[in-house]
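Worked example 4.2. Below are the chains of a multi-component assembly; read each line carefully before continuing.
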Amino acid sequence: MSESAVAEIALQPGHPRHFLKLETQTAMLFLLPSFLGFMIFMALPIAASLALSFTNWQLISTPSFVGLQNYIKLFTVDPALYTILRNTLFFAVEYLAVNIIVSLTLAVWISSLKRGKAIFRVIFFLPTFTPTIAASVVWLLIFTPDGLADSVIRSLGLGLPNFLLSSSWAMQAVVLVTLWANVGYNVVMFNAALDLVPKHYLEAAMIDGAGPWRRFWRIRLPLISPTVFFATVMTAITSLQVFDEIFAMTRGGPGSATATLGFAIYQKGFTNFQMGYASALAWVMFVMIMALTILQFHMQRKWVHYDD
Amino acid sequence: MTTDPASRYPHSQSRNRHRILRRIGSFVSYAGLSLIALLFLFPFFWMVSNAVRSNTEVLAVPVRILPEEYQWGNFIEALVSLPFGTFLLNSFVVACGVTVIVIVVSCLSAYAFARLRFPGREGLLLTYLSTLMIPQVMLVIPLFLLVSKLGWINTYHGMILPVAFSSFGTFLLRQFILGIPKDLDEAAMMDGASRLRILVRVIVPLAMPAIGLLSLFTFIAQWKSFLWPLIATSGLEKATLPLGLTLFQTQQGTAWNYIMAGATISMVPGVILAIVLQRVIYKGISVGSGFGGR
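Applying the procedure described above to all two chains together yields the following structure tokens:
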């Protein structure tokens, strides 16, 4: 007789109610640490953030309720908000598009190799394991006036200005650095998904005369589309919050060319001590993230293919 | 098929030509990807190359790819003269502290969600899941107020506790535990083991691949973390490595060579972990590519 059969008989309890209660109690105890942490460091701060966004608290003064004034000021009086929103959306859209295209290309390229896949995966993954600030500081040195980037631009005769000093190019530098620092994650994830595509699908298509381009669009991409979807949602959420690179490289400058929402919230809150106003900005970001995520889930029906 | 020029040649010859073409194709493919990989690695090279120069040489015009004079002592100098040693210690304490808490708390809650029945389980699980969408900057302001009210600014617990309760680990481990046969729990229960004992003796050893991956990603995420340490500390005493790198950037006469040395030091654990554990990382990502791991 197998052990599980014995267990089944023994587990028919004489007192089901007591048994259930005990299980609930155990569950409560097991969940207590995470629940407490969740309440104190997540739920309470979210409630506080919402409450703060309706006050004009400046940290030293006592907070007073101002209703929707912060939000009204945000959208009517403060001209900077539109610059900040434009910068944030510009960064998120460009970065998301470039990231997905580059990471898919590299992943397909790597998965086509017979040997040495692991080496290339590690190389592209390395920056994702290094502090963003360290990466940003290295790139800051590369972009320093008369530094490496300038001398390369000059020797190639490209006639471009110093990226970090130019208000039209600074954001491109931030996109480049963020891409370098984070693209490896999607490369490895797509590579893993591509390696799981059943070989006989591709062989069957090859026999039918489908070229590599067609095999990619008709077979591999649809089969890995759930992974691409997940990566797109995650990359969009993180790109709307971009902060480290901007803090270390540009501090929102030159002028306000690279001031994004994440940076503006930090600046309003911890440089100008306008906690109420900064909280209102944070809720604008939250709404943007929610809207974009819902939009992506809505659009997935058109292009994401689930096997089951 | 008859228009195919290869078909006019004898069979073996066409096969030969195909093989040669494939060889050339694969060579071009490797060469191209290697070139991209080298460009990708270049910032690392530039960092180390500048970490071993004198500061005047870092900023010298024209730019030199290799240092004129190698000053390997810069690494020791950076650890001694600038408090990069303290930053290193602080980074380790915070990253390890968060990782330990995340693992313990996630194991407990994941087991409860995966194996125990209690009223409102699905609803609570969904609530946990929805917290993953909350942006960090949104929590930073109220968390700063909370931590400063408690007098926790510039303390390790102030840096560790507020970021140690993400529900990501709960989901990752729950998903893994669901795949472990229930018979094992029941057999242990027959032997009179308590739930906690089952968790520690049966589930945790079996869930080690998932726990390892979670530890790795938590440690690296904290090692990289910048915004919360920036807000939860003031001055140099409790600063972590990423913070230290920016603190010296604003001082007059930036010591670029020392900052590059500090950046190199801050990259070492991640580089080692990424190389040593590449197989584990790849497997973990490929199994749970529906999860991600930021």
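Take a moment to check your reading of the output against the notes. Confidence is low (pLDDT under 50) at residues 1-14 of chain A. Residues 202 and 251 of chain A are 49 Å apart (CA to CA).
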